[in-house]
Amino acid sequence: MMLRTIIIDDEKRGRSVLQQMLHKYCSGTVEIVAMAESADAGRKAIAECSPDLVFLDVEMPKESGLELLQSFGKIDFEVIFVTAHENYAIQAIKMSALDYLLKPVNLKELKDAVARAEEKIKAGKSPVAVESFLQTMKSAHSKIGLPTRIGVVFVQINDILRCESESNYTTIFLANGEKHTSAKTLKDFEQLLTEYNFIRIHQSHLVNALHIKQYLKGDGGTIILTDNSTVEVSRRHKEELMKRLLLV
Predict the structure, then answer these.
(1) Could you tell me where the DSSP H helices lie in 71-194?
(2) Which of 25, 45, 62, 208 has its CA 20 to 30 A from that of 143?
(3) CA distance linking residue 46 with residue 237, whole number of Å
(4) Whole-number Å distance between alpha carbons of 174 and 159
């Protein structure tokens, strides 16, 4: 199976070097069906060519690679991000376990990334990780108002580690160590935050997938968050957590 592939990069040299490397070292796997020099041209190429795999430059003038992806209602192709800089977007891409290549592109990293993409595509796995990542980026500058006993506290959604149910109240734990108690139920927060990649892992707990650092096996298992706090996973919610974390 040849992977129909598009290269999107505003730098001519970047497109050319990647094209040559793919032709020379991945010719049995990759078929380059189009190259584009901008997000707009890339959008048209994707619509016309229905690719399996897209190499996408993160930083481009006028419209970034991330903005290009966000313009699609559904992502039905694998993405390997390409960038010349280690910036905030690359940190988020790392945390989402997505593939990326730093320029100048390393041959072994390129071949490994292509092999992983091929494996996912052959297995018929949908690129949900990319969609989850885009939701994470969408929430990066989004705020939520927390109604508390003394008023409303506004916080960045990405700063929320987890939400814990306490009867008809919910305690919200933040990355800076603060916590706030709201008169809304955990179900209310679940309905509000699911689109921002929050996962219900227990009857009493809703966690931000961005802050999941490690999963430990067990009956239901345990997750460790980025502040090193631990939360148990119920058997009932384990399967959904595994799916969301792309572990099955």
Answers:
(1) 88-95, 107-122, 128-139, 186-193
(2) 62
(3) 36
(4) 6
Sign of CA dihedral 61, 66, 68, 70: negative
pTM: 0.59
State how far the alpha carbon of 211 is from the alpha carbons of 144, 157, 194, in Å.
Answer: 17, 11, 14
Residues 203, 168 contacting (CB under 8 angstroms): no
b vs e for 202-217, b when ≥16 Cβ sit within 10 Å of the residue's Cβ?
Answer: beebbbbbbbbeebee
Omega of the bond leading into 61 within 30 degrees of 0 (cis): no
- Closest of 117, 129, 119, 157 to residue 141, by C-alpha: 157
3-state secondary structure of 248: coil
Both tokens of residue 143? 């705020």
The set of residues, in sequence order, having a beta carbon less than 8 Å from that of 236 and lying 6+ positions away, is 203, 220
Please list the residues that pair with 54 across neighbouring strands: 6, 79
pLDDT tens-digit profile, the chain (248 residues): 899 999 999 999 999 999 999 999 999 999 999 999 999 999 999 999 999 999 999 889 888 888 898 888 788 899 999 988 776 567 667 756 688 999 999 999 999 999 999 998 888 876 767 877 776 666 655 778 888 878 888 888 888 999 999 888 999 999 999 999 998 899 989 988 887 789 999 999 999 988 998 999 888 899 999 999 999 999 998 888 887 776 43
Q: How many residues does the chain have?
A: 248
Distances in whole angstroms, Cα of residue 57 to Cα of each of 33, 66, 69, 84, 117: 17, 9, 11, 9, 17
